[in-house]
């Protein structure tokens, strides 16, 4: 099974490569440090699975996920994130993720998620699946209904940052 890793931290990518390649039949064929690289590498290498971090400078993992699903529909995407709230998980699934693994997970959990995604199944870390199921009956309202990136911008505005500062800090256009 061919895997692409995308995380903005070099040390994390190196550790993930060693971990994933220790699992029988898994080969890491490419790495990316940001969303744009992830899309380019996925188009070049056609991995079976992309392991994608959400929090990266510039375009975030959600934006990369949406583009990966459009441009590389045969590559399943497993989100690996420090975020474990239901809104992040829901957005990832809505955008086409095949799995969501929290960074606190045991190494074997990542293997299970990657193999499930490659087989066309969905995997969620246990600590995110129960809260997500509880929110299915109670859809988010108000600020909670906003995507995480919009909440991040709103929070920065509330902290007194200007649009120009927010755009520079988040690596986005001031028009956004």
Taking the sheet with the most strands, its summary is: 6 strands, parallel
Global mean pLDDT: 89
Rg, nearest Å? 16 Å
The strand count comes to 6
Determine the structural class based on helices, strands and strand pairing. Answer: alpha/beta
Query: What share of the residues lie within helices?
Result: 40-55%
CATH C-level category of the largest domain: Alpha Beta
- Poorly predicted tracts of residues: none
GO molecular function: DNA binding
Pfam families: GerE (PF00196), Response_reg (PF00072)
Domain HTH luxR-type: 139-176
Modified residues (4-aspartylphosphate): 53
Descriptive overview:
With 176 residues, the protein is an alpha/beta fold. The protein has 8 helices and 6 strands; from the N terminus they run βαβαβαβαβαβααα. The protein folds into 2 domains: 2-136, Rossmann fold; 140-176, no CATH class. The chain has a 6-stranded parallel β-sheet with strand order 2-1-3-4-5-6, with helices on both faces. The model has no long low-confidence stretch (mean pLDDT 89).
List the helices and strands and how they pair.
Layout: E1 2-6, H1 10-22, E2 27-32, H2 35-45, E3 49-53, H3 61-71, E4 76-81, H4 86-94, E5 99-102, H5 107-118, E6 123-124, H6 126-136, H7 148-158, H8 163-170
Parallel strand pairs: 1-2, 1-3, 3-4, 4-5, 5-6
Helix pairs in contact: 2-3, 4-6
Features:
2 domains, alpha/beta, globular, single chain, 8 helices, Rossmann fold, 6 strands, 49% helix, six-stranded parallel β-sheet, 176 residues
């Amino acid at each position: 099974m061919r895997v692409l890793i995308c995380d903005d931290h070099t040390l994390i990518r190196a550790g993930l490569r060693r971990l994933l390649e220790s699992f029988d039949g898994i080969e890491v064929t490419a790495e990316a440090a940001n969303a744009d690289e992830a899309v380019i590498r996925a188009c070049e290498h056609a991995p079976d699975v992309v392991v994608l971090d959400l929090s990266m400078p510039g375009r975030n993992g959600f934006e990369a996920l949406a583009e990966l699903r459009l441009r590389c529909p045969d590559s399943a995407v497993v989100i690996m994130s420090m975020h474990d709230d239901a809104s992040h998980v829901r957005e990832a699934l809505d955008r086409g993720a095949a799995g969501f693994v929290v960074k606190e997970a045991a190494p074997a959990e990542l293997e299970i998620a990657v193999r499930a995604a490659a087989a066309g199944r969905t995997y969620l870390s246990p600590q995110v699946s129960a809260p997500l199921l509880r929110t299915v009956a109670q859809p988010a309202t108000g600020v909670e209904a906003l995507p995480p990136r919009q909440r991040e911008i709103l929070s920065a505005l509330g902290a007194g940052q200007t649009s120009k500062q927010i755009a520079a800090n988040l690596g986005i256009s001031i028009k956004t």
